[in-house]
């Protein structure tokens, strides 16, 4: 039995597969945003047109947009096999990864409000996960 047939005939497997893919999207999206920030800093351009041109001349900026595109493609596949109302909120985990990477890479600070916001996102995604199992 092919993977496609398995996903069509086994709703539980399709749901797990789609959630896994969206989780991958969150990691790709976070990496893309960090690369885009690095790329815009390296390009040191002002103005929309100059930044648009810089995408093709700055490897980190180009890589960031490429990862964003890949993330979008993976999301399209995930949406084929899962429920939008469950999958889309999981994308909010991207905020958690971006914040963690910003602290590690750029030395950005975390304050109690940011931590509460991140905890709320994680708690909300966990609640959705529990709701899908019932």
Brief account:
The chain is mainly α and 134 residues long. The protein has helices at 3-9, 11-43, 48-55, 59-81, 84-90, 93-106, 112-133. The protein is 85% helix and 0% strand.
Topology:
Layout: H1 3-9, H2 11-43, H3 48-55, H4 59-81, H5 84-90, H6 93-106, H7 112-133
The geometry reads as flat
| Main sheet attributes: strand count, strand direction, barrel closure | none
Radius of gyration: 18 Å
Number of helices: 7
Number of strands: 0
Helix content: over 70%
User: What is the domain total for the residues?
Assistant: 1
* Unreliable stretches: none
Proportion of β residues? Answer: under 5%
Class computed from helices, strands and strand pairing:
mainly alpha
Structural description of this entry:
The chain is mainly α and 134 residues long. It has one domain. The chain has seven helices and no strands.
What keywords describe this structure?
single chain, 7 helices, flat, mainly alpha, 134 residues, 85% helix
């Amino acid at each position: 039995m092919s993977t496609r047939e398995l996903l069509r005939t086994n709703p539980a497997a399709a749901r797990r597969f789609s959630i896994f893919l969206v989780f991958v999207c969150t990691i790709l999206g976070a990496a893309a945003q960090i690369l885009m920030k690095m790329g815009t800093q390296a390009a040191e351009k002002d103005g929309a047109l100059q930044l648009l041109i810089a995408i093709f001349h700055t490897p980190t900026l180009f890589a960031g947009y490429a990862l964003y595109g890949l993330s979008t493609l993976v999301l399209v596949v995930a949406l084929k096999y899962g429920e939008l109302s469950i999958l889309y909120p999981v994308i909010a985990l991207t905020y958690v990864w971006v914040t963690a990477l910003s602290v590690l890479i750029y030395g950005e600070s975390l304050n109690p409000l940011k931590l509460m916001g991140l905890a709320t996102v994680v708690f909300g995604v966990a609640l959705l996960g529990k709701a899908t199992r019932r």
